[in-house]
# Entry
Amino acid sequence: MRIDLSKARKRIGQLSRERYLLERELLDYLSRKKLIAGTPVEKYKRCNKGNCRCTRGELHGPTYYISRKEGKKTKMIYIRQVLWPRVEEKVKRYQRWRSVRARLVKINREILLILDKIEKAITVKAAGKGKS
# Structure
């Protein structure tokens, strides 16, 4: 198997630098406020009472929730409107955390694949006489 060792080293260097920056970003999150797992949701509702404005298309709301999977079920957690800006910020930071973490996993996989190719290219099998 042929592999350009120079290109492989260069690619590993690029990935290592990217990984370093992402690791620093994750560590920065650890020194800040808490993260909240889930997805921010704004809902508008219709009450369907006779002459209510919602029957004319002017829905009630917004009401705010965090949607989160718990097992096989989706749980909607109500968030008071006054708390929404802070909660939404923490949820978005959590989503960024997960995104950065996923990228780290991909980088590590790519580095390991390159190292496996290098190993195959530079490893020779010991030749023996066959019988002991």
Summary: The two ends are 30 Å apart (CA to CA). The CA atoms of residues 35 and 90 lie 5 Å apart. Strands lie at 39-45, 60-70, 73-79.
